[in-house]
Amino acid sequence: MATLLQSPVPLAPTDGMGIWDRAREGLCVAGILLGFFLLGIHSALLRPFWFDELSTLFMTNQPTLGGMFRAIPTDGNPPLYFLLARFFLQFPLRTELAMRLPALLGYVLGALSVYRFVRRDAGRTYALLSMSLFLGCRIDTFAIEARAYSLMLALTGLTICSWQYFCRSRKPIGLLGLAAGVIGAIFAHQYGVVYTIVPVFVGEAVRIVRRRSIDWPILLTLALSSSAVLFTFPTMLQAQRTLLHAIRTCPVFFAHPRLHDLRDYAHMVPLFAPVLFGVAALALILKIGTCGFSPREGSYSPPEDLAVAAALSLFLPFMLLLTHLGTNFFEMRYGLGSALGLSIMIGLLLSHLQARWRGTPELAWGGNFLWPCDGLHLPFGRSPSTRTTPLAGSCARVPRRAGADRRCVCARVLADVVVRQGADESETALPE
């Protein structure tokens, strides 16, 4: 462990690749992401809106931008996703697809950030595995949900990749990416500041211990960019104060954070992952028992990168604690950062295993081939949450006319009441 902490930061693995090899790698990654994107488009067209997406629909259909910004506090989220959805609504696309395109693009960019982060440390094989794990895990339904969660994951990925790039190159563009990721996440979701600041802070703390010096440019960039929360949080808190107080004080509210919510970790990895790693563990035990260790040169990630991945992996219990102390309202979507962290962590740790077991790359390729099988559930329109009742018949575009602000608030309250009371109706008419 002492040797690892004192080891220099490795350069990005090149695997002896030439221009043609790099082009083939790029085409492979682009092909995988394009396939997922096309599958997501098909899925987005099949699935009807559910009640949270209705709020996005009403916000983006305000007659003017000023009206949209006045209505946004009633939703409780910052404006970035609504602006992007409003932009895509200008194109000749079906409403379901236009509203969900920012989320789908965000999920694809989040997968690409997982690939880049692992690629710099562990090479293309393990980077592809990590990306495959992220694409195949069962949170991928959020890729076709017209809410800001996928966008927040993408901006979190941009933040940690920019931080990693600056740590290696010292180029100012890394700081620009870091600031853009933090500010973008803050304007995408209220928990965006937590998603971006916490993992970078943990990684930077490990760097400070290793280097015995403070990297002031990174800390100053984090401090300045995180101040953007002053433009979003007070307004949303004021608008949601009554609802949040009711949620916190209600003794029987359905979404109070509970310890059994930790079972949501099962959604953060693909179905094939336990089988894959069970085979890995069995093979490693047999290898040690029959032949002993066969050390070889492997990829070693700097400990700060592992710390970032570990911090993200623990976001599910972290958000459980944070919401318990704060709003007392928790949904699995608040802990989606764990899927990002686990995907990165698995790729990095398997690259360490390569130093002890020669079959690790083949195991990683096995995971790359298995993820499409697990991802085939996406087109079948699985419900985004087991805790909510979808409101069908809501895909029609809302006419832009006077009174839309009141309709927006009424529809939101109606949807919340229907779900809280456990209504059995599968369709609920919107108020005129």
How would you describe the overall organization of this protein?
- This protein has one domain (21-420).
- It is mainly alpha-helical.
- Helix content is 64%, strand content 0%.
- It starts with a helix and ends in a 12-residue tail after the last helix.
- It is globular.
- It contains 18 helices and no strands.
- The chain has helices at residues 2-6, 19-46, 51-60, 65-71, 80-88, 95-122, 124-136, 149-169, 172-186, 192-211, 216-226, 233-249, 273-291, 303-313, 315-325, 337-353, 360-375, 404-420.
Question: Residue share in helices?
Answer: 55-70%
Q: How much β-strand is present in the residues?
A: under 5%
Compute the number of structural domains: 1
Total helices: the number is 18
* Shape type: globular
Main pleated sheet: none
Distance between the termini: 66 Å
Give me the strand/helix succession.
Answer: HHHHHHHHHHHHHHHHHH
Low-confidence runs (pLDDT<50, min 5 residues)?
1-12, 293-298, 379-432
- What is Rg? 22 Å
Count of beta strands: 0
Mean of pLDDT: 79
Structural class: mainly alpha
Annotate the secondary structure layout.
Layout: H1 2-6, H2 19-46, H3 51-60, H4 65-71, H5 80-88, H6 95-122, H7 124-136, H8 149-169, H9 172-186, H10 192-211, H11 216-226, H12 233-249, H13 273-291, H14 303-313, H15 315-325, H16 337-353, H17 360-375, H18 404-420
